[in-house]
Amino acid sequence: MASVESQEHALQVLGAFTKILRPFNMTIVETHIANLKLVLLGESSVGKTSIVTRYTTGNYQKTNATIGAAFFTKTINLSVENGVLKKVNMEIWDTAGQERYRSLTPIYYRNADAALVVFDVTKPDSLRKAQSWIDELHEYCNNDRPEENIHVIVVGNKVDLDHEPLDNNTDHEFVLVSAKTGEGVIELFDKLAEDVVPEKFVKQEDVEDTVVDPFKISRKQSCSC
Ligand SMILES: Nc1nc2c(ncn2[C@@H]2O[C@H](COP(=O)(O)OP(=O)(O)OP(=O)(O)O)[C@@H](O)[C@H]2O)c(=O)[nH]1
Ligand SMILES: [Mg+2]
């Protein structure tokens, strides 16, 4: 059996650890949440489903061609400031690239905050075709929601494979990723969450009395620099 001295020593060590760790825990008094609707577009086989699966599950899995569209969600803790936890609830529509579903895709533009137009870096033709989705998005914005634009990001996938150097001929942000290795995928979605404007956050009524692990908070937001 442990002696009284060694038990006291153990308690002292535990106390010291608690003091060291306390500043890393943040008590939450309010939660503010924003919904972010994303839509993925692009030719069949460019890797839209693989990118979303990588982001939402952390895995690269075998996929089948999407039929119509698939819906995914992911909620992330964005930041904690003055006891307010900010969360972003992503609603992600992964559309089918096959030509036969093409007439359905505009349904998913409705209320979308951002569109990820995906192409395959090994297939320059898929980048040229991405332009037709961008044109369609512009047309939709001009006709149906002239006051608000959809944030368009052109995403080149499969950078793990050999490919020719790429030029961004579009007027949009250009991001390169690999669903297979995960390169650039979390950063792509995190950046979209970080760009959510403050007005989109609303107070969540069921207040969570919880302590958040700051290491699970998006790196950029938890940094004070
Ligand atoms: N090497 C490599 N292969 C990938 C990558 N991402 C996807 N693939 C492969 O590309 C093929 C098509 O991927 P999907 O994610 O189903 O493509 P999709 O764009 O969703 O296709 P549709 O649903 O038909 O529109 C699959 O065989 C994937 O394994 C990647 O980053 N690198
Ligand atoms: Mg798919």
Automatic annotation (TrEMBL):
Keyword field contains GTP-binding: yes
Protein name per Swiss-Prot or TrEMBL: BN860_10000g1_1
Top-rank taxon, per record: Eukaryota
Pfam families in alphabetical order: Ras
Record carries keyword Isomerase: no
Entries under SUPFAM superfamilies matching the protein: P-loop containing nucleoside triphosphate hydrolases
InterPro entries: P-loop_NTPase, Small_GTP-bd, Small_GTPase
Keywords: GTP-binding, Nucleotide-binding
GO MF terms, alphabetically ordered: GTP binding; GTPase activity
Upper taxonomic lineage: Eukaryota, Fungi, Dikarya, Ascomycota, Saccharomycotina
Segments crossing the lipid bilayer: none
